[in-house]
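Appendix B. One record, verbatim.
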Amino acid sequence: MSNSHSLKEIVKLQKLGVSKGIYSVCSANTFVIQAALERSLKDEVEVIIEATANQVNQYGGYTGMKPADFRDFVFSIAEKVNFTREKIILGGDHLGPLTWKNENASVAMEKSQVLIKEYVLAGFTKIHIDTSMHLSDDDHSLKLDTKVIAERGAILCVSAEEAFSKLKAIDQKAINPVYVVGSEVPIPGGSQDEEDMLQVTKLADFVETVEVFKKAFLKYKLDAAWENVIAVVVQPGVEFGDEIVHEYHRKTAKELSKAIKNYPNLVFEGHSTDYQNAASLKEMVEDGIAILKVGPALTFAVREALFALNNIEKEVFKDNENITLSKFDNILDAAMLRNPDNWNKHYHADGLGMNFARKYSFSDRCRYYLSDAEVIKSIDLLIKNLESIDIPLTIISQYMPIQFTKIRRGLLEKTPEALIKDRVDNILDDYRFAVLP
């Protein structure tokens, strides 16, 4: 691999009128990452695996992993499936003061600088700089000024470039990171309000964002780094909440789609593309949204598969007194109730209620609990129980009909782990379709 980042090639193809894109897997879930790597191995393509600032940071995040730990975690899975490291693009998502937005700007930015340095030093080469949120001493009654957002972004880019210089001194083959910027950044993990009204980014705001960020970068003598800014995050009208999905409507994003053609080195990065249908994803790539981020939809699929297997386990072992059932569904809910901080601000006591949302919400706050020790034990027991038998095809047909069809066609093994990963692969099918020219 050359020292030129491969994502720049996608930008070049887009500017030549080729609707080429790439999807980015934003997850720390083992099943998701393994499924993504196996899919990319089959397709013989590179894969982007991203960690988010609240998930992985210098303090461990909610996964308990620092950036170097996450890198090693991904590489260990890659080794297991014989996927070459050189084809893995590690990304840092929402790098900035997101996790420390309740602190004063001076403290939050200092922590953010450490954060971005650790990501770059760990070999992450796709860096999303996100300084779009108000900090404690900002005036929350006013919209955060784009100049403030850009200034903070440039400061973080200085830290990233300094870290890369250190990395390059150690490893001459290190690839210069590419950057994603933007001031209209969707909330990580989806909308917190079913009634949120989506406002597609206005053309004037997009143009201002690019101009202001460029001025800030040049002010901090980041001329070379600006050449490595490959994408801007805008709101093209896609989002999801507890029970709804805002579908992409290309007419509403027509002005943005036309405008991006005027920037030879930039494409759009689409956040919150989860649950979009395949045709919509394809249209997004055709309209210049060349990087499609997906995360909650993948762990949502893992949860669906685990619930299906849990139901299969109950059915096949209900009369067997010698088997201890995993009770995965109950144990997962108990873990969420023990520590409600990761879901109670995102779910609302309307519709079908909190109990329903904890299990089935598109926001998929369940994912925060899949690494809980008790939940992991129950998953391991679930898999162990089902591995001890030849799972009847009839019950797979009942709870996992898509996987049943693949098994009948000889395309899928009849094992619990294969069934889980294939449910994830169902989602990746749509993204693979979308990013192909």
